[in-house]
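Lecture notes, part 5. Sequence design as translation. It can be helpful to think of inverse folding as translation between two languages: the language of shapes and the language of residues. The source text, in structure tokens, appears below.
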């Protein structure tokens, strides 16, 4: 199984480290040729506008879209979720893949970052694990304001804010699983890749 991690900017090194912990040798993606042979792709947190501009400059927009159209799994965390969305409320480069409306920086600035224990029953069930919460880190995080047809909600905060979604082979999370020691979200994605 070959998993790519978009390595233009942001927290890609942490995703690479988590994948290695789970026994996967990831491939850093910076150019279209780096997409060759991939079975899945992770787009990290960072700054979504910069990510989109760099992906445009390095001619990665169409290869990533075509990867998704070929039904290959893609997972976006934080900025990666924003980059995958159809609607973020203003103009910036987007992949236009996930049928969701996203609000950027929904919780405020960096100083407003927080940790929350998230129920993830669908993920735990898929992994055959006891249903225990995921300790999620939110850093200048977006939220999913609304979901379109075919989008499943995987996790919500106690106030109902949507922070994880899945649309068939596409996954999006507002939080940063790569910054924890908990590999469940990464394993869930790897299972998605294996079963696709």
């Amino acid at each position: 199984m070959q998993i790519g991690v978009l390595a233009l900017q942001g927290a890609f090194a942490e995703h690479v480290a988590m994948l290695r912990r789970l026994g996967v040798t990831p491939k850093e993606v910076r150019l279209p040729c780096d997409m060759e042979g991939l079975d899945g792709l992770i787009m990290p947190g960072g700054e979504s506008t910069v990510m989109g501009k760099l992906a445009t400059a390095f001619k990665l927009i169409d290869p990533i879209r075509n990867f998704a159209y070929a039904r290959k799994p893609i997972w976006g965390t934080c900025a990666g979720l924003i980059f995958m969305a159809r609607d973020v409320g203003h103009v910036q480069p987007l992949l236009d893949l996930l049928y969701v409306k996203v609000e950027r920086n929904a919780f405020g600035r960096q100083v407003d970052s927080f940790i929350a224990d998230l129920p993830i029953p669908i993920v735990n069930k898929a992994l055959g694990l006891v249903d225990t919460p995921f300790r999620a880190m939110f850093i200048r995080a977006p939220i999913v304001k609304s979901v379109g047809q075919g989008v499943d909600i995987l996790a919500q905060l106690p106030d109902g804010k949507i922070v994880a979604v899945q649309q068939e082979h596409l996954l999006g999370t507002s939080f940063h699983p790569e910054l924890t020691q908990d590999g469940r979200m990464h394993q869930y994605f790897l299972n998605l890749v294996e079963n696709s």
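The translated text above is only one of many valid answers, since several sequences can fold into similar shapes. Helices lie at 12-21, 48-57, 61-69, 79-84, 121-127, 184-195.
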